[in-house]
Amino acid sequence: MINKLKKHILNDEILIAGIHAISNEISITSVFEKCICTENSLIPNEDGSTIALNKKKYSTSDIYIGVTDSSLIITDCDKSSYYYEFDDKPNINIIDVQNIESEISFNDIGVHFSLKDIQSYKIKNGWMGSIQCFIKMKNGSYFKLILPKFGGLGGGMPNHTRYREIILEKIINSSKSSVL
Questions:
Q1: By the 8 A CB rule, do 70 and 55 touch?
Q2: Coil, strand, or helix at residue 42?
Q3: For the chain, how long is the longest CA-to-CA vector?
Q4: Contacting residues for 70 by C-beta, under 8 A, at least 6 apart
Q5: How far apart (Å, rounded) are the C-alpha atoms in residues 63 and 147?
Q6: Taking Cα atoms as reference points, which of 9, 107, 141 lies closest to residue 65?
Q7: Is the pLDDT of residue 78 over 90?
């Protein structure tokens, strides 16, 4: 789990907490400029176009969620399938446009987010001590997550509950976010 989360952390960041969780629904929106879309990735190209990518999953799946001082990382535990929509004429007035410097796999898009980009959240108690968490980002991306009370079987993740609280605290204290 730690290796999967650390793969998506920027060089100067340190993972503070990470846990196994469950996603019920994920919708990620990103816009990239000067690139070419291939079968599985985006490649930078000066003559390329601006492309909006909507990466969605409407099924329940296992994820890892982690935080640094300034970032939220959400990545799949195992290989996972998403529904992709592309738009080569996106409305760039409503979303930040990203410039890519090297080839980026669709799997690596929408994994690392600034905590400052959290627009709103809703946290409520779920079944068997779990916490249901809805996070909406400023760019329209959103996550419907379940954070279990315990991690692993037989005490497999002894710090799970403490790390879950740290993650929730970071979401709640994120800059300019509001409760839904």
A1: no
A2: strand
A3: 55
A4: 13, 114, 115, 116
A5: 10
A6: 9
A7: no
